[in-house]
């Protein structure tokens, strides 16, 4: 028994694309395998970790849970389309605060934060806790929080990293940023 293929059309990073794949194919695999946009990461495959977060019509969504057949005619932005030179304010804040450790979750985290800052330009810690549910296995949550606040302030020109975080501060802050 073969798979039913259909032609799904939408826009990725400003470029029209046509995928001849089963309509139930997760967007994650269309991006990574068919478009070679590997910045969008496979993490859990269940929509829990957020490593695969992209924007669909400006909203952060977990691409492992979005069938391509459901997004006909939409606009998808991946980490590669956020900025081609790392000049997006969130990327600059990430660099200034030296957020990544292993870096695996960071593209999804950056995409989630970029979408939230459009809706809540100056998020409180409570806003961050409620909206950023991506997981960071390395536990860089204190640096993530500082980077979010830095990006919201637009304070990315200095390039001076924030102070190192103590282990007790990391332990105190990590639970508030974890997915529920």
Total domains, how many? 2
Spatial strand sequence of the major β-sheet:
2-1-5-3-4
Radius of gyration, in Å, reads: 17 Å
What is the average per-residue confidence, as pLDDT, rounded to a whole number? 88
Question: Which spans have pLDDT < 50 for at least 5 consecutive residues?
Answer: 158-166, 168-176
SSE order in H/E notation?
EEHEEEHHHHHH
Helix content: 25-40%
* Number of continuous helical runs: 7
CATH topological fold name of the largest domain: DNA polymerase, domain 1
Termini gap: 40 Å
The CATH class of the largest domain, by name, is Mainly Alpha
Q: Let me know the CATH homologous superfamily of the largest domain.
A: [2Fe-2S]-binding domain
CATH architecture of the largest domain: Orthogonal Bundle
**What percentage of the residues does DSSP assign to strands (E)?**
5-15%
How many strands? 5
Q: Report the principal-axis shape.
A: elongated
Largest sheet: 5 strands, mixed
Keywords: 2Fe-2S, Iron, Iron-sulfur, Metal-binding, Oxidoreductase
Protein name: (2Fe-2S)-binding protein
Pfam families: Fer2, Fer2_2
Domain 2Fe-2S ferredoxin-type: 6-82
Describe the structure.
This is (2Fe-2S)-binding protein. One of its GO terms (molecular function) is metal ion binding. InterPro entries: 2Fe-2S-bd, 2Fe-2S-bd_dom_sf, 2Fe-2S_ferredoxin-like_sf, 2Fe-2S_ferredoxin-type, 2Fe2S_fd_BS, Beta-grasp_dom_sf, Diverse_Oxidoreductases. It comes from Sandarakinorhabdus glacialis. With 180 residues, the chain is α+β, with helices and mostly antiparallel strands. The chain has two domains: 75 residues, Ubiquitin-like (UB roll), CATH 3.10.20; 86 residues, Orthogonal Bundle (DNA polymerase, domain 1). Helices cover 36% and strands 14% of the residues. The chain contains seven helices and five strands. It has a five-stranded mixed β-sheet with strand order 2-1-5-3-4, with helices on both faces.
């Amino acid at each position: 028994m073969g798979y039913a293929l259909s032609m799904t059309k939408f826009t990725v990073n400003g470029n029209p694309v046509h995928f001849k794949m089963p309509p139930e194919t997760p967007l994650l695999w269309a991006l990574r395998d068919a478009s070679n946009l590997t910045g969008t990461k496979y993490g859990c495959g269940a929509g829990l970790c957020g490593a695969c977060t992209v924007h669909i019509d400006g909203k952060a969504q977990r691409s492992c849970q979005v069938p391509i057949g459901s997004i006909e005619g939409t606009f998808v932005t991946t980490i590669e389309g956020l900025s081609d030179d790392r000049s997006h304010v969130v990327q600059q804040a990430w660099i200034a605060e030296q957020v990544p450790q292993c870096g695996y979750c960071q593209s999804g985290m950056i995409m989630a934060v970029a979408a939230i800052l459009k809706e809540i330009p100056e998020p409180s810690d409570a806003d961050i806790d409620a909206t950023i549910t991506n997981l960071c296995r390395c536990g860089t949550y204190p640096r993530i929080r500082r980077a979010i606040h830095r990006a919201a302030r637009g304070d990315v020109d200095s390039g001076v990293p924030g102070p190192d975080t103590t282990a007790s501060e990391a332990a105190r802050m990590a639970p508030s940023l974890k997915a529920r």
